Give the backbone structure.
Amino acid sequence: MASEAHAETLALREQFDTAAQQKDASTLGMWIFLITEVMFFGGLFLAYTVYRSLYPESFGLASSTLNEIIGAANTAVLLCSSFTMVLAVRAAQLGQRRTIMLFLVLTIILGLAFLGIKGFEWTEKFHEHHVPGPTFHLEGTAMQGQAQLFFSLYFAMTGLHALHMVVGCGIMFYLLWATYRGRYSAEYYTPVDVGGLYWHFVDIIWIFLFPLLYLIDRHLK
Amino acid sequence: MSEHVDSVKTYALVWIILLILTAGTTAVAHVDLGPFSVVVALAIAVCKMLLVALFFMHVRHSTRLTRLVLVGGLLWFFILLALTMADIVTRGWLGVPGK
């Protein structure tokens, strides 16, 4: 396993004193990137908060047309994928190459399952005319514009989240390939660790999207 | 430093708690708590976020600098929310012509 590629990735870059310091720097860099992502999604969460406070009735009505059971199931799928991801990182800490690959594959499968369920939900919206545009119609309200605003935010937020999932799956495929090539060991597994941080972050975004979009007006129905 | 290797048991426990919280938040959404529906839903979401961050993202083993960046970033997000909402909510309070 100690291939040339492996030896190279183990090398300590000259700006660092120790390997531990080098790894801390990578972790910190990833967290700073994730904070910029918080701001990126933050704009959408803010827009949602503003419009929900302005048009609570329309948002309540539009929100309760979403299927919360599917939403909850998708949340569970994503939480399971975070669990398999953390086990992949743990396997990397212990230098268990095969176990890393097993859990990365499971993470990818769960990630794709999430996207599949999401795609099914979006298709349903097209059939129900709940996609903002000329054919949009929501039963039971005269405020079609306000209801469209909810669905615009719904598609923007879940769409951006799904895009992050696609990128996440891409990262997992890369890690799988690199692990197969024997790049990682108990001494060096920073990419697996940092990739895991990204995956969990995308999970956290969904943890907030789920109650905000599906749940908080459910009792009004 | 994430030299700490947590046990599978710890991760499994966190995972099960997360699933229970998901079921819980879905069930409680059908109960009419008035304005507290939002509070309860967000409180559960924050608990889930903390569990994922502290255990799965190893924040509890991370350096102080990483934690500072994390708290600082969230603080900035709350400034964004708080100042914008302070504007939106209070706009109708004064009868400003041409509003």
In short: Chain A touches chain B through 54 residues (CB under 8 Å). Chain A has a mean pLDDT of 93.
